[in-house]
Amino acid sequence: MIGIVLAGGTSSRFGTDKALYRFPNQQVNNAQLAVDKLITICDTVLVSANQQNFAELTRQFSASSGVNVISDQPPFEQCGPLSAIYAATCLFEKPNDYLTLAVDYPLISTEVLATIANHGNCYAATPDADHYTLAHFTVDQQTIKDFLLLDDYRLSYFITEVKNCDPVSFSNAALFINYNTPEVNEHEKQK
Q: 56, 127, 155, 158: which has the fewest C-beta neighbours closer than 10 Å?
């Protein structure tokens, strides 16, 4: 299984790069936190970076065994998470199992990821939301390329309609807080 850390977003609502950000209660930045969780489950972890954070993430993970930093590949640059998945598939000739994790879920536990990894073609869901960037599926380059050529960049549609992934339900929604601002109140810091 190959882990993909989705670290290439623009972080426009966040105001600073989410991947490189370290919340006050964290020992490492969000990208490192995601890698540390995925590397316990996956054979290889690919960190999908953007143009702004590629050099810094490459330096950060240069000595990390089993971790590689990748960037969007033409012609599908800056198409959101699907660009990252396409870039990952460009590295392999055959279909692979992928486990995705966005850097804006710092509270996700390795137990949650292991549960997702143990289900084929699935994504995480909580009572109030579907979390498509926390997913496990098998895909090859041609399948995702064909989808992207339709100019449809919705990860939700790709996950549910193309890959026919099913939700895996989790009751503890607190683990799935998607941080879109760097401000963390005291209650959230203690979770």
A: 127
Residue 143, phi-psi category: left (phi > 0), alpha (psi -120 to 50), beta (remainder): alpha
Q: 51 — alpha (psi -120 to 50), left (phi > 0) or beta?
A: alpha
- Inter-helix orientation angle 30-38/110-117, to 10°: 50
The pTM score is 0.90
Q: Which domain holds residue 137?
A: 2-189
Structural domain tally of the chain? Answer: 1
The Cα–Cα gap between 87 and 77 comes to 9
Tally of CB atoms within 10 A around 49: 28
pLDDT in tens, 129-167: 999 999 999 999 999 999 999 999 999 999 999 999 999
| Of 128, 72, 129, 122, nearest in space to 100 by CA | 122
DSSP letters, 109-151, are: -HHHHHHHHTSSSEEEEETTEEEEEEEEEEE-HHHHHHHHTTT
From CA 13, how far away is CA 33, in angstroms rounded? 21
CATH number of the domain to which 165 belongs: 3.90.550.10
CA 130 – CA 152 distance, rounded (Å): 19
